[in-house]
Structure formats: C-alpha cells, structure tokens
Amino acid sequence: MMSKSEFRNKAISDRESQSGDEVKLKSQKIFERLISLDSVKNARSIMTYIDFRNEVQTRLLIDYCLSNGKNVVIPISVFKGRQLIPSQLMDPDKELQISKFGLLEPKPEYVRVFDKEELDVIIVPGVAFDKYGYRVGYGAGFYDRFLASIDNESVVKVGVAFELQLHDSVPHDSFDATVDIIVTEDRIIEICKKD
Question: Between 71 and which of 6, 45, 58, 162 could a Cys-Cys bridge form, CB atoms 3.0 to 4.6 Å apart?
Fold first, then answer.
C-alpha cells in the first residue's frame, strides 16, 4: 500500500495531467451542482478557497455568491502555526494579490477577519477524497486544524473534486477532518457518518 505522501504525489500528478479546457469545463459542472445544494442556496456566509494550479475553479461560485448577497469568505494562510484566517471578500478584481507562496490572498488593506462560527458552508479543497468524506490535502494540515477548531456543528463542509480525485479509500489519520458532502462534475455524494 502506498504511503500518504506517495498517494498525494500520484493524486497531484493525476490532477495536473488535465488540460486547462478540461478543468474549466468540469469546474463549470461542479459549480452547477454546488448551487443546486440547499445548504449553498440557503447560506448567508460561504467560505471558499481561491483555486491554484489545476484545482477545481471557484470564481463562478464567488461571483454567484456576491451577486446573490451572500458573504464570501476566503482563507488567508498563516504559515507560522499553519493556520487559516477567514477574511471577507467583497471585490475579487480589486482586493486580491499574489502572496509570496503564489496564492491569491487579500491585500493587507482588504483583510476583514470573519468569525468562523458564523460560516454556514465551507468549500474544502483536496488532492483526493474518499466515499467516507476523508480527504488528502497538501500535507501541511491547514484545513484539518481549521475545521477541527470550529464549534458550530451546523456548518456544512463541502469537498469539491474532479471524479479522478475520488477513491474508494484514502490514507488518513484519526485526527483528519472529514467533509459532509462531495461534489464532482458527475455527482453529489452525501456522506453517511459512521456512528
């Protein structure tokens, strides 16, 4: 069996093998499925990542949320302590810059720290997911820490992924956070929690 890091590297390689057109088309289908979810339709505040490299693209979702009066919240990565700080985004064309790590994040004057307990939906990226809601990230644990730190049990955690990122099982540890729903270009998977 592959180690978690070997699994991660293979999953990233698989995702990176897609063309830009494939990523765009599949991301559009994922967006259409996302906005069909009651949790997304009814949410007041949605946290989403801003895509990087060949991740599922999120700009359509950001624009949809802003045009429908929803609070859009994006993560700021703080590498000391490996934390995510939620910040409200109001104008993606004006407020973002490329960080020293190559991620789009708010310019300092547009950082608006948002109370994580007020989030209704969190869109969770991942390198790979399985049918139990486990995910493999990039290995730094940012999302595992962030999701574990939220006390609001009603927040809905939605993993977005391409079908090729979905596996029967992924390597995971007991402390890894899970998602409640996975949305791919082909389907919506509601995770049945094991009691």
Answer: 45
